């Protein structure tokens, strides 16, 4: 797989997910940044690439467009099977997808930039209101996630066993994003332990927001 182009933003947690997967698979790609806070993702040139105007977007060598981070990651996993990001057994795959979607579907969508911006523009929310909103929805998702991870025999060094996968990718990106909003991680020792294990890996480090060309 060659000539991949990743449209993304260094601080976007969904972009971070895809960068981690690309790094884990050992795939090179062209990094195209779009500054979300400057509205670059809404400019005509990018909308011509991705009509949804969101990041990440992965363009394959034949021009095919893929959007939505989980769809992109599963495509990469199916086309470049090593190292695997999902277990071989059906129950294991279901568990990993469950954990990943608790973050990707239940926490992230209500805390992404366009929602936080709408809180300000439509409802007059101030900085403190936005921070409290973000923390609230993280806690709503992390409380059950912590219990599931801490109580399951399927949890190992990582979310599922002793190798990182899709759930760990989502967890690491979310915890990294939490830091910008001062989320208290003390109630989540299992999540914190897994996050530390992820961040000890070169792929997660290379993909980290602070190590991207558009980092500020």
UniProtKB/TrEMBL annotation:
Gene it is expressed from: maiA
Entry protein name: Maleylacetoacetate isomerase
GST N-terminal domain segment(s): 2-84
InterPro entries assigned to the protein according to its UniProt record, in alphabetical order: Glutathione-S-Trfase_C-like (IPR010987), Glutathione-S-Trfase_C_sf (IPR036282), Glutathione_S-Trfase (IPR040079), Glutathione_S-Trfase_N (IPR004045), GST_Zeta (IPR005955), GST_Zeta_C (IPR034330), GST_Zeta_N (IPR034333), Thioredoxin-like_sf (IPR036249)
UniProt GO molecular function: maleylacetoacetate isomerase activity
PROSITE patterns referenced in this protein's UniProt entry, alphabetically: GST_CTER, GST_NTER
Organism, scientific name: Mesorhizobium album
CDD domains, alphabetized: GST_C_Zeta (cd03191), GST_N_Zeta (cd03042)
E.C. numbers: 5.2.1.2
Enzyme class label: isomerase
Residue span, GST C-terminal domain: 89-216
Pfam families: GST_N_3
Keyword set, alphabetical order: Isomerase
Coiled coil segments of this chain: none
Family: Belongs to the GST superfamily. Zeta family.
